[in-house]
């Protein structure tokens, strides 16, 4: 498992395009928002948590198709499926690697972008907390979507259609926690619900992903 | 004599050929009676005027939109556990019907909402849940279309249906948390056995709901039979191709 994690991290870091791309996309989305809604600081303050969450979600989505597709093409997935390591564990590790290379940088970058969007001072801690708690769920759910469409030619758009509705609860609780935090309200309730959602998806989704992947590889 | 007998496509086709005419006539009758009674036989509402009558389309279609997904969930489970092809095909056949029912519910709701709420659309929990359900239907159908091997497609869509059900329910409660509602409470609370509409509106509504249910059954049977025949034709063509 460690070897697999190391391999995936190495590939993401060195193969180029994977690691920085999600982050750059996040940056561009947030920079485009003031262009589209205008530079009014009051307006930006009110929409900043939602925009940052949406940007993080989209950049997670963007990097999903390379989560399994490359390994599917060169046959690595077949090897993983027949390896003594359960496929559920292998997929969990892959999702973890995806989170480390995509989700974690987003969490770190979010406060800087929050500054650009004139986020309320009280909101930074909650924003980082909600992203840190919520993005693992995005990776694990995304892994399911990637497994579902890995056998489909040009499955990228289809995967967005399948994965985005599944992201709805995570987005609602995450953005709600960030928004309430920014407005100085009690943000603990949505954050706890978000944590529950993340724990449940981490515990259960790998089984669904592995089941789906076995069907595709069969 | 058990239900599983009809997992045999031949028996299923024979049964549905016998049942379908009855279903079509019954559903046609129920819907006509329900709608005509509802449109012409009931008084205008005190405050809503004649716009209240859209309820005879809106509520039944919304009901069937949810039940269609539930039926897909059950048939998907049957496919995953017992590998009956008819079951998988029934799930496939039900999806577009459910999609259209969802669309009808959304559109009639918007048409009613414009004069009553003063808006076509509001980000209300119920409306939003239905929009999400609509997206789930789209994704489900798109996945069926995208995969060529029919058995793999049935497998993958079944799992998507299971996971989607969990997330649809999650979303349902998440959106309630996110925004308080504009939509009124349920018209016929089954759990409490009470009623929030008066008898004048209630009876035609129930008849219309029964009619929509029968219509759904008839459509799904019809489409399932078509799917079975498509599958057969494909098998025959493949066999001929091998012989030649």
Q: How are the elements arranged and paired?
A:
The complex is a heterodimer of chains A (218) and B (244).
Chain A: H1 2-14, H2 19-37, H3 41-62, H4 65-73, H5 76-82, H6 87-116, H7 123-149, H8 156-182, H9 188-217
Chain B: H1 9-40, H2 55-82, H3 85-116, H4 125-146, H5 150-178, H6 199-243
Description:
The complex is a heterodimer of chains A (218) and B (244). Chain A is built from nine helices and no strands. Chain A has 218 residues and is mainly α. Chain A has one domain. The relative contact order of chain A is 0.15. The mean pLDDT of chain A is 85. Chain B is mainly α. Chain B has one domain. In chain B, 77% of the residues lie in helices and 0% in strands. In chain B, α1 runs antiparallel to α6, α2 packs across α6 and α3 packs antiparallel against α4. The chains are: A mainly alpha (218), B mainly alpha (244). Chains A and B meet through α7, α8 and α9 of A and α4 and α5 of B.
Give a concise summary:
The complex is a heterodimer of chains A (218) and B (244). With 218 residues, chain A is mainly α. Helices cover 84% and strands 0% of the residues of chain A.
Task: Jot down its keywords.
A: elongated, B: mainly alpha, globular
The rounded Rg of chain B comes to: 20 Å
Strand content of chain B: under 5%
* Poorly predicted regions of chain A: none
Overall shape of chain B:
globular
Query: Roughly what is the average pLDDT of chain A, rounded to an integer?
Result: 85
Largest sheet of chain A: none
| Major beta-sheet overview of chain B | none
Alpha plus pi helix count of chain B: 6
- Mean pLDDT over the full residue set of chain B: 84
Structural class of chain A: mainly alpha
- End-to-end separation of chain A in angstroms reads 23 Å
Write the H/E string of chain A, N to C. Answer: HHHHHHHHH
Helix content of chain A: over 70%
Low-pLDDT runs of chain B: none
């Amino acid at each position: 498992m460690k070897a697999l994690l190391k391999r995936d991290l190495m590939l993401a870091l060195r193969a180029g395009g994977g690691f920085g791309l999600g982050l750059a996309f996040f940056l561009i989305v947030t920079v485009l928002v003031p262009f589209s809604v205008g530079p009014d600081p009051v307006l930006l303050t009110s929409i900043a948590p939602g925009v940052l969450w949406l940007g993080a979600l989209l950049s997670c989505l963007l990097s999903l198709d390379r989560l399994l597709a490359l390994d599917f093409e060169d046959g690595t997935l077949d090897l993983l499926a027949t390896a003594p390591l359960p496929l559920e564990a292998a997929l969990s590790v892959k999702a973890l690697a995806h989170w480390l290379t995509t989700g974690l940088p987003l969490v770190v970058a979010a406060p800087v972008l929050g500054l650009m969007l004139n986020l309320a001072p009280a909101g930074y801690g909650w924003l980082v907390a909600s992203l840190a708690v919520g993005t693992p769920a995005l990776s694990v759910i995304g892994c399911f979507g990637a497994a579902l469409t890995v056998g489909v030619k040009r499955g990228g758009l289809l995967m967005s259609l399948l994965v985005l509705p599944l992201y709805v609860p995570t987005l609602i609780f995450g953005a709600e926690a960030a928004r309430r935090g920014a407005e100085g309200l009690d943000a603990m309730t949505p954050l706890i619900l978000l944590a529950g959602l993340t724990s449940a998806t981490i515990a259960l989704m790998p089984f669904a992903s592995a089941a789906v992947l076995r069907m595709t590889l069969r | 004599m058990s239900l599983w007998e009809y997992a045999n496509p031949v028996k299923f086709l024979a049964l549905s050929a016998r049942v379908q005419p009855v279903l079509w006539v019954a559903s046609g009758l129920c819907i006509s009676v329900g709608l005509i009674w509802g449109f012409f036989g009931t008084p205008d509402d005190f405050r809503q005027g004649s716009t209240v009558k859209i309820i005879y389309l809106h509520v039944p279609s919304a009901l069937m939109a949810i039940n269609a997904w539930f039926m897909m969930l059950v048939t998907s489970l049957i496919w995953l556990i017992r590998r009956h092809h008819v079951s998988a095909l029934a799930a496939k056949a039900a999806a577009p019907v459910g999609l259209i029912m969802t669309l009808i519910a959304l559109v009639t709701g918007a048409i009613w909402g414009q004069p009553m709420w003063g808006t076509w659309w509001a980000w209300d929990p119920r409306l939003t849940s239905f929009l999400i359900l609509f997206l789930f239907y789209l994704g489900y159908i798109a996945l069926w279309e995208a995969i060529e091997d029919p058995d793999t497609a049935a497998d993958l869509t079944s799992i998507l249906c299971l996971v989607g059900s969990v997330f649809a329910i999650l979303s349902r409660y998440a959106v309630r948390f996110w925004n308080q509602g504009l939509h009124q409470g349920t018209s016929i609370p089954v759990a409490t056995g009470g009623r929030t509409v008066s008898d004048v509106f209630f009876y035609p509504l129930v008849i219309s709901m029964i009619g929509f249910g029968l219509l759904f059954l008839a459509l799904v049977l019809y489409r399932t039979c078509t799917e079975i025949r498509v599958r057969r034709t494909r098998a025959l063509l493949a066999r001929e191709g091998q012989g030649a």
